[in-house]
Write a structure and sequence with these properties.
- The structure holds two protein chains of two kinds.
- Chain A is of the alpha+beta class.
- In chain A, 39% of the residues lie in helices and 13% in strands.
- Chain A is built from eight helices and five strands, in the order βαβαβαβαβαααα.
- Chain A has helices spanning 33-46, 80-85, 100-113, 125-134, 158-164, 174-185, 191-199, 209-223; strands at 18-23, 51-53, 93-97, 118-124, 141-149.
- In chain A, strands 2-3-1-4 form a four-stranded antiparallel beta sheet.
- Chain A is globular.
- Chain A starts with 17 loop residues before the first strand and ends with a helix.
- In chain B, helix 5 runs antiparallel to helix 7.
- Chain B has nine helices and 15 strands.
- The termini of chain B are far apart.
- Chain B has helices spanning 14-17, 55-67, 94-100, 122-125, 148-160, 170-173, 206-219, 241-247, 267-281, and strands at residues 2-3, 23-26, 31-34, 49-50, 78-79, 84-85, 132-139, 146-147, 164-165, 175-177, 182-183, 191-192, 195-202, 224-231, 254-258.
- Chain B is an alpha+beta fold.
- Classes of the chains: A alpha+beta, B alpha+beta.
- Strand 4 (118-124) of chain A pairs antiparallel with strand 15 of chain B.
């Protein structure tokens, strides 16, 4: 899930961004992997994730037949059961946590379950290293993000980048992230409403609503 | 992707949603319109929440509100009349969807995904070993997009260094000659949201490869994100690549960490591993 590798921000900004994901390896441990993926997600669900995804959908998803009255009372509750029951084939399943404590507690249970799937953590280099040490395991491999090379100045400001790159597949556009920032600053949407709207565009369920909410609140207070 | 002009009410909700900025309201017809050359067929607009309101009714209400200068506050992620229509795409345009839409199956092209398992399954696949470095060079993301001729500029430069392209990577599948890094000619002007080139080298090659990537990135009009991976030692430490990257001036603050919990569990594979072990003992 390279789509969580290149999130924009410094190490401090990843303090509330820990993604655990499980992935079977084709030909090595993919037999019976669907049930193991579901087990992984059920373990994650116990530890209060901010979001979960199964590769086809996340726990915040668009509505295909919206009733006009929903404009005033849209439900932004994450639907974890739908994500778990929606695992029908082998692939990556992921859960997003807003603290190292939650991610570590979940990781301990995943170690205990001994699923045999490859388990990865995407966060700051140090955050994952410390979590592994606290759980008594050694890192096997590390893939470092070297950030963006943008010699032609295509990229927007840091707040827009932080919001947009949390969907690593690029489904949260710069313009839409900017629009949500503006709507929050202008008092036309609460940070919670804006975050729910942003998260619906990430079909993999790795968007971090809690980190996005913090970024939006910080942007609002800096405007005041 | 198409927008049905009989349904569209020009509410413009879809305009900022498009990652490529390919949607605009055409003032001549007062409908949302897609610049098909800029569109990468990612499906983001199609996946917006949908209402199925009567277009005539919505246009009337919007027209009245506009006349009185009322401010609209619709939900910003909703297409009120469900106007988007998925096209049946043919080669080579189908490649846009394959590389840009994360939820589309793409057996028709024979391309096996946008990227591979990289080091995510390195604990069982052993793709990158101690002393080796894997690279994922990603083009176009976030939010810029890339054309295949720009990717080819990089693959040819890397091929000249003698690097080995990852065999299962989709870009490698689209090469006509891996020794030169040349891609299929009919694809070169196609635009996609992002693509990943994967290579592997020895640790000694890292400065040369990263220098080459930096130089080529100045020549192509997109954004590039690079990931570098390696296997940790038996204590879970990386005392080779991380210090080297620091020496080269890269501040690697974020990483994807394989926690080493995977193992071979497929029955046939386990037997094969057992046979290999016996053979080595004999």
């Amino acid at each position: 899930m390279t789509n969580t590798l290149h999130r924009y921000g410094n190490a401090e900004s990843f303090r509330d961004d820990y993604i655990l994901f499980a992935i079977p390896c084709k030909g090595k441990n993919d037999e019976g992997a669907v049930e193991k993926q579901k087990t992984f997600l059920r373990i994650c669900q116990k530890h209060g994730p901010s979001n979960m995804g199964n590769g086809d959908c996340g726990s915040h998803k668009p509505t295909q037949k919206m009733n006009p009255t929903q404009h005033w009372n849209r439900d932004a509750t994450p639907d974890f059961e739908n994500v778990i029951e929606g695992v029908h084939k082998t692939g990556t399943v992921a859960a997003v946590f807003n603290s190292r404590e939650k991610a570590e507690a979940c990781l301990r249970d995943v170690i205990e379950a001994d699923l045999g799937l490859s388990i990865n953590m995407s966060t700051s280099v140090e955050g994952a290293h410390q979590a592994a040490q606290c759980c008594g395991i050694h890192r096997h491999s590390v893939e470092y993000s070297l950030g963006f090379a943008d010699p032609h100045d295509h990229l927007p400001n840091s707040q827009v980048l932080e919001l947009s790159t949390m969907c690593g597949h690029g489904m949260v556009s710069f313009n839409f992230a900017r629009k949500m920032l503006d709507m929050v600053r202008e008092g036309r949407r609460s940070p919670e409403q804006a975050v729910a709207t942003l998260a619906r565009f990430c079909p993999c369920g790795v968007y971090n609503p809690d980190r996005a909410k913090r970024i939006l609140e910080e942007a609002r207070s800096h405007t005041a | 992707m198409q927008i049905d002009p009989n349904k569209c009410v020009a509410c413009a909700n879809c305009v900022p949603v498009c990652p490529m900025g390919a949607i605009y309201i055409d003032p001549k017809i007062n409908r949302a319109t897609i610049d098909s050359d800029a569109c990468v067929e990612c499906g983001t607009c199609f996946r917006m929440s949908k209402e199925h309101l009567n277009p005539t009714f919505v246009r009337t209400v919007r027209g009245l509100a506009k006349m009185f200068r009322f401010r609209f506050e619709p939900e910003p992620d909703v297409c009120p009349t469900s106007s988007f229509v998925l096209d049946e795409l043919a080669w080579p345009r189908i490649v846009r969807r394959v590389f840009s839409d994360p939820v589309v199956e793409h057996a028709s092209t024979g391309i096996k995904g946008r990227g591979t398992e990289e080091v995510k399954t390195n604990d069982v696949a052993h793709r990158v070993d101690v002393g080796e470095v894997g690279y994922v060079i990603e083009f176009g993301r976030p939010g810029v997009g890339v054309r295949f001729h720009e990717i080819q500029a990089m693959t040819t430069a890397l091929a000249a260094l003698g690097v080995k392209f990852e065999a299962k990577n989709p870009i490698t599948h689209l090469m006509t000659d891996q020794s030169t890094g040349a891609l299929k000619v009919d694809l070169l002007n196609e635009k996609i949201l992002s693509a990943i080139v994967e290579i592997k080298t020895t640790i000694e090659m890292v400065p040369k490869v990263l220098d080459t990537i930096t130089e080529v990135s100045k020549q192509i009009d997109t954004v590039i994100a690079v990931g570098c991976s390696t296997r940790c030692d038996e204590n879970g430490e990386d005392k080779v690549l991380a210090p080297l990257l620091e020496d080269l001036g890269y501040a690697a603050v974020r990483a994807k960490t394989n926690l080493g919990l995977g193992r071979v569990t497929n029955v046939a594979k386990k037997e094969q591993v057992g046979d290999e072990h016996l053979a080595s003992v004999r």
